[in-house]
Design brief:
The protein is of the alpha+beta class and 606 residues long. 35% of the residues lie in helices and 10% in strands.
C-alpha cells in the first residue's frame, strides 16, 4: 500500500500529492472500494469490455493502415514525436521538407482494392451485416460500422485483406493481433492457453511498437494485455462483454411508443411482455408463442422412429423451394449409390465382409487396390449379397438400399441441415449472402490437410422403392484439389489457401447432406488484388470458426528494415477527392512473395 488517503479525510490532498510526486504512481486519492473487506483479495477489480476494446483497436489499426484523414495515427504531429523519441531516420523530414510515406499505410491503389473488395464481400446468411453499405468508394474509407462489423473484420478479414497489399514484416504482427482476439473470444477456453496469451500479447504489441509511431499506442492498445488474465479467472468473454446488454437495450428502445413518456412506455411494454410470456406457458402445445419459436435455420426436427430404419433416412433436414424432377443415371447414379453405401454406418459390416473376401482371394492385395475394388464393384456385390437368402439379410431398409434408388430424383435450391442454410451457386447469384461454400472432413480427422473445400452445385433428394418412404439428400459439389498445389494451410496462422485452377480430378462429386459443414464463417470472398489480370472464377476464401489456437513466432532479430515506402509519396499527398485518378489510370501492381509464383497467382486466403 502506498498510504493514500480518501478525499474525505483531513489533509488528504496534501498527503496524496506528496505520495504521488515521490513514488511516481500517478494516483491522487484512495478509492472508496478499498473500504470493502473483500477488495484487497478480489481477483478481478475491473471487468474490461472486450467488445469496445476490440472495436477501438480495430479502428486505430484500420484508419492508420488506410491513412484516413483526421483519424489516422500517422500524421505530421506523430512524425514530429517520432523524431523526438525514436530512431527512424527514414520517416523523418526529407530534403523537400516533407515526411515520406510509411510502408504500413496503403497508397491510393491499395485503398481502392480494399474498398472494392469489402463492397463485394458475401458471407453466410445471418453471420454479419452487409458491409458493402459502409464503403465510401469516393474517399476510399469505411463509415458507420457497428461493433459486430468491427468484430468480424478484426478477427476474420484483416489477415486476408492485407495479405497481398502490405510487407510481410507489417502483415504478420497485424495477423497475430487478429488471431489473439480470435483465440480470446472462443467459446471454450483452457487455462494453459490463456496463460500463453498473457505472454504472447505483450510480444505482439512490442512488434507493433517497432512499426507504428508512438501516437498509435493509447490506453486501448494497452488493455488487451489484461484480457487473457480476466478470461482465465472469469471464464469466456461471451458472458461478460456488452453484446447481450446492447441488444437488450435496443429491445427496450423499440418499446417506446410515446417519446414524451419514455420510461413509462418501456415499463408498460415490459410488464405486458412478462405477463404474456407467463400466460403462454399454459397454452396448448400446438400454439406458436415466443417461447416456442423455431430456430433461424430449422431442419424440421427428428422424424418418427421406425424400428430397423437407417441413419441416412432419419437424419433431420428440411428442403426449401420448388422441387424440380430430373433423371439420374449412368456414371452419376453409380457415383451417388457408391458414396451412399460406403458412408452408411449400417453397411459397414458388409464392407468388412467384402474386404475379407478380397484378402482371402488375394492375400497380397494392397489397400489402394481394395479402395479401387470398393469403388468399382461393391455396388453389384452388395446387391447380390443382400438378395441371397442364405446370407440372412432380413432388414427391409438394408435390402432397399442394396436395390438402389429410383431413377428420378428431385432437385432443390435450398436445404437446412446441421443448423446451417445451404443453397446452390445458381440460386445464390445476385444475392447479398453466400451459402454455397461446403467443407467436409477427409478420411483422417486428425489432419487439417485432409479437409475438402468445394462449392455446392446441386441438391438432390433420392428416394428408394417400397414402403415406408425412404429418402436421403445428397450435395453435388465442385471440389478443389486437396493437395499442396490445390489447398494448403499457413503453418503459423491456419490460413487456408485454395488454388482456383486446380480442381479435384476424380469424379466424386457427392456427399451426404448430413456430412456438410459450413462452420459459420466459411465464406467465399474475392481476394483484394492489385493486378489488372482478370479471372473467369473469383478468388475464394473459406474461413474456419473452429477453435484453432495459434502459436506466434518470437522475433529475435533487431533489424526490422526500413519503414518508409520507396515507391510512395509524402504524407497527405493521397488525401482528397480531387486528387484521385480514374479507374483506368490507376496502375495496379501485385507483389508475390511465394516460392512458386505460377501457383500462387490463383491462390486465395482463408
Amino acid at each position: 500500500m502506498l498510504g493514500l488517503r480518501k478525499v474525505t479525510e483531513a489533509d488528504a490532498d496534501e498527503i496524496n500529492s506528496n505520495i504521488c510526486k515521490t513514488s511516481g504512481c500517478g494516483w491522487r486519492k484512495r478509492s472508496i472500494f478499498w473500504d470493502f473487506p473483500y477488495w484487497s483479495t478480489n481477483l478481478i477489480r475491473h471487468n474490461l469490455d472486450v467488445m469496445h476494446i476490440e472495436k477501438n483497436v480495430f479502428e486505430n489499426v484500420f484508419n492508420t493502415v488506410m491513412n484516413i484523414e483526421g483519424k489516422t495515427k500517422d500524421n505530421i504531429k506523430a512524425r514530429e514525436d517520432l523524431a523526438m523519441f525514436c530512431r527512424r531516420k527514414e520517416l523523418e523530414k526529407n530534403a523537400n521538407g516533407k515526411y515520406p510515406k510509411a510502408n504500413y499505410t496503403l497508397d491510393k491503389n491499395g485503398k481502392q482494392a480494399v474498398c472494392e473488395w469489402v463492397k463485394n464481400l458475401k458471407f453466410p446468411d445471418g453471420y454479419v451485416s452487409n458491409m458493402g453499405r459502409c464503403v465510401d468508394l469516393k474517399k476510399y474509407k469505411l463509415f458507420g460500422m457497428k461493433s459486430h462489423d468491427c468484430h468480424v473484420f478484426m478477427q476474420r478479414l484483416i489477415p486476408i485483406a492485407f495479405r497481398n497489399l502490405m510487407p510481410t514484416n507489417v502483415w504478420e504482427p497485424l495477423t497475430e493481433l487478429s488471431l489473439s482476439f480470435k483465440d480470446l473470444t472462443c467459446t471454450k477456453l483452457k487455462e494453459e492457453d490463456m496463460r500463453r496469451l498473457e505472454l504472447e500479447i505483450p510480444e505482439i504489441l512490442c512488434k507493433l511498437e517497432r512499426i507504428f509511431p508512438p501516437a498509435f499506442f493509447d490506453s486501448m492498445e494497452h488493455l488487451p494485455v489484461h484480457l487473457p488474465y480476466e478470461a482465465r479467472i472469469a471464464g469466456p468473454v461471451q458472458f461478460r462483454w456488452m453484446y447481450p446488454f446492447e441488444r437488450f437495450l435496443r429491445h427496450l428502445k423499440k418499446n417506446v411508443g410515446n417519446k414524451a413518456r419514455v420510461e413509462g412506455s418501456i415499463c408498460n411494454a415490459y410488464l405486458v411482455e412478462e405477463a404474456s410470456n407467463f400466460c403462454s406457458h399454459y397454452f396448448e402445445s400446438h400454439v406458436h408463442t415466443r417461447q416456442r419459436n423455431v430456430p433461424r435455420n430449422d431442419d424440421g426436427g427428428v422424424a418418427v422412429p421406425i424400428e430397423g430404419n437407417l441413419s441416412i433416412f432419419t437424419y433431420p433436414g428440411r428442403s426449401y423451394g420448388t422441387a424440380k424432377p430430373r433423371p439420374i443415371e449412368g456414371g452419376e447414379l453409380r457415383a451417388a449409390q457408391t458414396y451412399i453405401l460406403l458412408n452408411c454406418d449400417e453397411v459397414t459390416p458388409y464392407i468388412n465382409i467384402y474386404i475379407l473376401n478380397l484378402r482371402e482371394q488375394d492375400p497380397r492385395i494392397s489397400d489402394a487396390d481394395i479402395d479401387q475394388m470398393l469403388d468399382n464393384n461393391f455396388v453389384e456385390w452388395f446387391k447380390l449379397y443382400a438378395c441371397n437368402p442364405s446370407n440372412n439379410v432380413t432388414n427391409i431398409f438394408v435390402k432397399a438400399l442394396a436395390e438402389g434408388p429410383n431413377r428420378t430424383t428431385l432437385s432443390y435450391p435450398m436445404y437446412f441441415v446441421n443448423g446451417y442454410k445451404f443453397h446452390t451457386i445458381g440460386h445464390g447469384t445476385g444475392r447479398a449472402t453466400m451459402n454455397s461454400g461446403v467443407c467436409i472432413k477427409g478420411t483422417n480427422y486428425s489432419e487439417n490437410a485432409s479437409d475438402y473445400y468445394g462449392q455446392l452445385i446441386e441438391i438432390l433428394e433420392l428416394e428408394y422403392p417400397g414402403y415406408p418412404f425412404k429418402r436421403t439428400v445428397l450435395f453435388k459439389c465442385d471440389w478443389f484439389y486437396p493437395s499442396r498445389h490445390g489447398t494448403r494451410r499457413h503453418p503459423n496462422y491456419s490460413l487456408v489457401e485454395v488454388n482456383q485452377s486446380r480442381r479435384f480430378n476424380r469424379y466424386e462429386p457427392f456427399i451426404l447432406a448430413m456430412q456438410a459443414c459450413q462452420i459459420k464463417a466459411r465464406a467465399v470472398v474475392e481476394m483484394p488484388e492489385l493486378s489488372k489480370k482478370t479471372s473467369s472464377m473469383p478468388e475464394l476464401a473459406f474461413q474456419d470458426n473452429e477453435i484453432n489456437l495459434h502459436q506466434i513466432e518470437v522475433v529475435e532479430d533487431n533489424d526490422l528494415g526500413l519503414l518508409n515506402d520507396p515507391n510512395g509519396g509524402d504524407i497527405g499527398s493521397d488525401v482528397g477527392d480531387d486528387e484521385f485518378e480514374s479507374e483506368d489510370e490507376i496502375e495496379h501492381v501485385l507483389e508475390s512473395e511465394s516460392e512458386d509464383e505460377d501457383d500462387d497467382e490463383d491462390f486465395a486466403d482463408l
